[in-house]
Sequence to fold (128 residues):
Amino acid sequence: MRIFCFLSLLILLASCKKDDNTQGLNSSCIQVKNGNIYNVNYLGMMDGARFDVICKFPDGCMFINGVTEERKGQDVNITVVVGNNACGPCVETTTTQSITYIFNPPAPGTYYLKWKGIDNRTDTIKIR
Fold:
């Protein structure tokens, strides 16, 4: 009888599959789109120009999923990618999140960084 129970347990454990989703969220519940940046703080130079990119969200379901940049010569437009968990319960309070963005230019020169959601702000970065 013990052998039967042991074999049954072994088969049951072998049939389990680890979920690939590291956040424990169902991928069909996550909606991703471009979002607006609330504020940016310059952190200094270290393997590139570092910035703390801050976003404000109306509830706890939204989160920063990454940062994208679009380069047109010396102009760089920076956007945050925002995720929204549409399936889970949300904290109904305004939340603030940040992510570190590192600007690594392809060559020395002067670059102009523009942040989606912050009108009239352009950061000038000089790389030697």
User: Anything to note?
Assistant: Strands lie at 30-35, 39-45, 49-57, 62-72, 75-85, 95-103, 109-115, 122-127. The longest strand covers residues 62-72. The helical segments are 2-15.
